[in-house]
Amino acid sequence: MAIDRAGLAEFLRNRRAALQPADVGLPLGTRRRTDGLRREEVALLVGMSTDYYSRLEQQRGPHPSEQMLAALARALHLSLDERDHLFRLAGHNAPGRKSIPDHVGPGMMRIVDRLADTPAMVVNSAGETLLQTAPAVALVGDETHFTGLRRSIAYRWFTDPVTRQRFPSDDHDHHAKAHTARLRAAVTREGPKSHAAEVADALLAESAQFTELWSRHDVATSLSDRRKRLLHPELGLIEVWCQTLLDPDGSQGLLVYTATPGSESHQKLAMLGAVGPSLVE
Predict the structure, then answer these.
(1) Within 10 Å of residue 227's Cβ, how many Cβ atoms?
(2) What's the pLDDT score for residue 280?
(3) Which SUPFAM superfamilies is this protein grouped with (predicted)?
């Protein structure tokens, strides 16, 4: 499929002009001469150079990868139909509409943009992190760079000992039960051909602990699962509350981490911007 450079450039300019800085969590600034976002603001949101993005709008850019297009779709708050259109204009087949889509919709994106100073992340029901704020990366590390089955925190929990280093050893059994219960509920809801089922089948073949917990058919976790203790490599123990906002279809959830005001953990969360990304992966 050939790239439609003129159509791609026009579509990007149109969608950029339709957004204001406040729509994507950016300050308004001064002396704005353009309607909507500036090119450099879109490039910042996507994680590409301004020159790269500018060339796309000038019909002389390179052939963008699927990963870059997915990032553009998130930055421009595109709907699924608009995302598919973007992919086709850029010479790619539109991504399949999986039962657990990787695409973060405009509504969820608007909420995340307003949580720029708060540890927050969007995950799907297979336990894959789709989007993180900078404080969330500083708190738990970059969870969006994994590939294959390792994208799922449930899979990593049972197959990669390093993943458990973020949590006190006394809490490991609880987290193992919670990951299993959430995955069991997702498989029941989405069916044996779902992505959640693919993760569960892989774990049944690889982890004796997961297999034993899976056989219990637990599908719910206690209220205490909202309270988590995290081990940060520089700040040490941080106790947080994890509140979850679910999409109407339950396929994605927004996790927001907070701490009790005035507590030591609350002070540590405020320091995340200074210490930078967590190196525990």
Answers:
(1) 11
(2) 44
(3) lambda repressor-like DNA-binding domains
Decide: 130 and 108 in contact? Cβ < 8 Å. Answer: no
- Name the packing angle between helices 39-46 and 50-57 (round to 10°): 120
Phi, psi (degrees; rounded to nearest 5) at 269: -60, -35
Hey, what long-range contacts does 151-156 have (CB within 8 A, 24 or more apart)?
151/126, 152/126, 152/127, 152/128, 152/199, 153/123, 153/127, 153/128, 153/129, 153/179, 154/126, 154/127, 154/179, 154/180, 154/182, 154/183, 154/199, 154/203, 155/127, 155/199, 155/202, 155/203
The mean pLDDT of the chain is: 88
Reported residue count of the chain is 281
Query: Where do the DSSP E strands lie in 4-163?
Result: 120-124, 129-132
DSSP 51: H
Diameter of the chain measured on Cα atoms? 62
Q: What is the separation of C-alpha 116 from the centre of its chain, rounded to a whole number of angstroms?
A: 13
Q: How far apart are CA 133 and CA 275, in angstroms?
A: 15
Which residue segments constitute the domains of the chain, with CATH numbers given?
A: 5-89 (1.10.260.40), 106-171+221-275 (3.30.450)
SS3 label, residue 131: strand
Please indicate, yes or no, whether the overall pTM of this predicted structure exceeds 0.85. Answer: no
Q: Which helix (H) or strand (E) holds 244?
A: strand 236-246
